[in-house]
Design a protein that fits this description.
By secondary structure, the chain is an alpha/beta fold. It has four helices and 15 strands. The protein has a six-stranded mixed sheet with strand order 2-5-4-6-3-7, with helices on both faces. It has a four-stranded antiparallel sheet with strand order 1-15-11-12, with no helix packed on it. The chain has a three-stranded antiparallel sheet with strand order 8-10-13, with no helix packed on it.
Length: 276
């Protein structure tokens, strides 16, 4: 049986078609204060380090542009599948908390939260995998967990794999390494990975946005037919819909945010397929 869950402190990327459009890539340079300026040779690049930004796509790009940040990565990927390149490969980034790894790696930040389930979308995995596939082909690197690592895999000063000097834990337990590396391998071989057999998305809220008043909240299942869609706030079931359009409260319904306590909340939609 199939079940799909999408977490949102925000909107989700749309389900991908079998033939994907060109990658939405833009170039926004990081502040010159946020990375070393020594040229590094192509032969030095041996790793990709996967990060979760603990925030929004736009906020992460702005932070790398801020000269006070003293941090940078080569790419930032959004939940909608957009990509911003912020450093050329010929420059090391300050992203891993380990100078040796920084000099030998390309860092990729992903919009989302490490310890909030389901904030990574299929569109985000795909966009990032397309970038990594191109990197692995360019530098003739094996596509495996020895060469595509998480921030938590970076050694600290004592040689332990605990996320560099600041002991980061991203991308965390909710990052789907199996899906991600399968996508990287497919793109590296020139193939578009098939869409998930079952998925659910919601574009009702911008990621990390402030929501007030009565707002519509809709979910869009994709793939095999859905038996039901559940709407949850902080993991608690608030509404179930069994017929499209899958809108909180039914057709014309809204989520009354005045009934929620002020503060940060996680809005998630969970779809269950007809086979369970």
């Amino acid at each position: 049986g199939l079940a799909a869950t999408l977490g949102a402190v925000a909107s989700a990327g749309r389900a991908m078609a079998s033939v994907e459009p060109p990658l939405a890539l833009r170039v926004v340079p990081a502040s010159p204060a946020n990375y070393p300026h020594a040229h590094r040779p192509r032969s030095l690049i041996r790793l990709v380090v996967v990060h979760v930004a603990e925030g929004s796509y736009a906020g992460t790009v702005r932070w790398f542009r801020n000269p006070r940040a003293r941090v940078s990565a080569h790419y930032v990927v959004s939940r909608a599948g957009e990509v911003t390149r912020m450093l050329p490969h010929t420059r090391a980034g300050w992203h891993a908390g380990n100078g040796y790894v920084n000099r030998r790696s390309i860092g990729i930040e992903h919009e989302g939260f490490t310890w909030t389930p389901w904030t990574m979308t299929d569109a985000e995995y795909r966009a990032s995998a397309r970038v990594v596939a191109a990197i692995m082909r360019r530098y003739l690197l094996p596509i495996d967990r020895a060469h595509v690592i998480g921030h938590r895999d970076v050694p600290d000063a004592h040689g332990r794999r605990v996320g560099g000097y600041a002991h980061h834990t991203d991308p965390g337990p909710y990052w789907n390494w199996g899906r991600y590396l399968s996508y990287v391998r497919s793109y590296a071989a020139g193939r578009t990975p098939p869409p998930p057999a079952f998925d659910v998305t919601s574009d009702s809220f911008a990621f990390g946005s402030t929501v007030t008043g009565a707002v519509p909240w809709e979910a869009v299942p994709a793939g095999v037919p859905a038996e039901r869609v559940e709407f949850r706030v902080d993991g608690r079931l608030r509404d179930t819909q069994r017929q499209p359009p899958y809108t909180f409260g039914g057709a014309g319904g809204t989520l009354n945010t005045a009934r929620e306590q002020n503060g940060r909340h996680t809005l998630s939609v969970r779809a269950v397929a007809a086979d369970g």
